[in-house]
Amino acid sequence: MYSVNVPVPGRVRQLADQLYPSLVGFETVREDHSCLLKRLGDAPHVSQLQRRAHRALEGAPAVEAQITGIDYFEDPPLGSAPVVYLAVESPGLESIHEQLLAEFDHVEGLEGEDYVPHVTLARGGNLETAQRLAERDIEPVTWTVTELEFWDGAYKLPVSRVSLPA
User: Fold this and answer.
1) 114: domain CATH number?
2) Pfam families from the entry (predicted)?
3) Per-residue model confidence as pLDDT tens digits over 51-88
4) Integer angstrom CA distances of residue 41 from 4, 11, 75, 85, 154
């Protein structure tokens, strides 16, 4: 599965690293961090998906994003629960998500009206632990999103990037 992801700055990765000791009881703890913007599906050649995404992203500007706190999905539509994440507030990213929806089908329960920008920290743990984490105060992290990544889910690697003009 290919996707368009938002790379996060080092300050967000540092925050995730600081939270790591509180996440060790979860089944899976993410070590690589980004914000999923839109799932693109599969194609025999990633270049086809990239061309379609580039067309959909034409004219999309750089946007502001902010980590506003820790939250969790108690009952996510896919995978083990709960999912603990860093909440991302960004009307600009939500707008770009909508642009991509015009070109690519949306995944029911995860995209469109159900889209919640976030950076996953861990999943498959204790609900009470997730609730305690969500009560923690963190210092907000604000940054400008100037590029997006085309992500190969099979290899868990970015395959290319697209710049968003400032």
Assistant:
1) 3.90.1140.10
2) 2_5_RNA_ligase2 (PF13563)
3) 999 899 998 999 999 999 999 999 999 999 999 999 99
4) 10, 30, 23, 23, 11
